[in-house]
Design goal:
Elements (H helix, E strand, L loop, with lengths): L11 E5 L28 H13 L4 E5 L9 H10 L4 E6 L4 H11 L3 E5 L5 H8 L4 H11 L6 E8 L8 H11 L2 E6 L17 H12 L2 E3 L9 E5 L4 E5 L12 E4 L4 E3 L8 E2 H5 L5 H13 L5 H6 L10 H6 L5 H4 L2
Parallel strand pairs: 1-2, 1-10, 2-3, 3-4, 4-5, 5-6, 6-9
Antiparallel strand pairs: 7-8, 8-9, 10-11, 11-12
Helix pairs in contact: 1-2, 2-3, 3-5
This protein binds S-adenosylmethionine and iron/sulfur cluster (SF4).
């Protein structure tokens, strides 16, 4: 088990496999044009699997494949198969759902066990406004399709933005119940900078729970959160919902995750400005012991608590300036996997 300087054990890897996306969610990548990571710099499936295999020995319990939109990565089921063989106990994927109906069976067959789909609204006009693409029909159709495929876990992730989708929480919970998914409401975070985030757009956990109680009578906290980002609540109808309070009640003290950008930068925090250049190390011919040793050293040096530090900032606005973002695309949420 690898412990960092705050005693946090490394257990989860968020593996971003592409920075590209077929949506342009206003809270994530609102711009029309981005500087993409260079194709030859993307880690190959063999490189990604090697990293996971080495981390497994260091106590890694869970890999979540993400992006950008991970389903845009060519031959993703092949990577899922390779990761499933690496022996990591939990293999999960987060997708916006647009291409999922076409790929879900192949992903399941390759060994994917857990699926999270982002769904912020059930209303076509709100979807088009939030995602800047009219793709709600394919997302909903994918969701209805995947429920029959026997995934061990099916979750919905909803970023709540004031004045946009905060009136839909009760409807979204009902929809989650219909498809057998657990829904998690996420406070809108200020990662990146192109999003024009401002504090007034954040709907806090307290407000989210108030809305759920107004719709369902009660929302009782459940024990046993561990290192999971969501606090879970049981509603009066028995349904369980999660709330990820990354802005108002950050969970940095329990954070067990490492992030890898598609071009091989290892990051210790969603708010990290710099990371470890794993691509360079992997491509320098370094042996397993050296790669493992460098990753271990990197995790053990960790003391960040990015989201907690952000709560101490007075007059909080976007995290990084547009100029800095254009100079380094890795500072954006869509390159670091959300
Ligand atoms: N494209 C996939 C998707 O949308 O599910 C995977 C990548 S996306 C960056 C991963 C997660 O980050 C999504 O659930 C998304 O809603 C969340 N996310 C993106 N920007 C966010 C923000 N500003 N605040 C909170 N969550 C955000
Ligand atoms: Fe794309 Fe996901 Fe970001 Fe939306 S949240 S723009 S779907 S990466």
């Amino acid at each position: 088990m690898l412990l960092d300087r705050r005693g946090r054990a490394l257990a989860t890897l968020r593996l971003s496999v592409t920075d590209r996306c077929n949506l342009r969610c206003t809270y994530c990548m609102p711009e029309a044009h981005y500087t993409w990571l260079e194709k030859p710099h993307l880690l190959s499936f063999e490189e990604l699997t090697r990293v996971v295999r080495l981390l497994r020995v260091q106590g890694l319990e869970k890999v979540r494949i993400t992006g950008g939109e991970p389903l845009l990565r060519q031959e993703l089921p092949k990577l899922v198969g390779m990761l499933a063989q690496s022996g990591v106990p939990q293999l999960a994927l987060t997708s916006n759902g647009v291409l999922l109906e076409k790929q879900a069976e192949a992903l399941r067959a390759a060994g994917l066990q857990r699926l999270t789909v982002s769904l912020d609204t059930l209303r076509p006009e709100v979807f088009s406004r939030l995602a800047q693409r009219s793709e709600i029909a394919s997302v909903l159709s994918s969701l209805r399709f995947v429920r029959g495929l026997g995934f061990q876990e099916l979750k919905l992730d909803t970023v709540v933005v004031r004045g946009v989708n905060d009136g839909e929480l009760v409807d979204l919970v009902r929809f989650a119940g219909e498809i057998g998914a657990e829904i998690r409401f996420i406070e809108y975070m200020d990662v990146g900078g192109a999003t024009r985030w401002e504090p007034g757009l954040v709907v806090s956990q307290a407000e989210i729970l108030e809305k759920l109680r107004a719709g369902y009578g009660s929302a009782q906290p459940l024990a046993g959160r561990g290192s999971a980002p969501a606090e879970r609540f049981r509603l009066s109808n028995g349904q369980v919902v999660g709330v990820v309070a990354s802005v108002t009640r950050p969970f940095c003290a329990d954070c067990d995750r490492l992030r890898l950008t598609a071009d091989g930068q290892l990051l210790l925090c969603l708010y990290a400005r710099t990371g470890l250049d794993l691509r360079q190390l992997l491509r320098s011919g370094a042996g397993d012991d050296e790669v493992s040793g460098r990753i271990a050293e990197f995790w053990m040096s960790r003391q960040d608590q990015g989201a907690v530090d952000r709560t101490r900032v007075r007059r909080r606005s976007g995290y990084v300036s547009l100029k800095e973002l254009r100079a380094d695309p890795r500072l954006e949420m869509h390159t670091r996997g959300g």
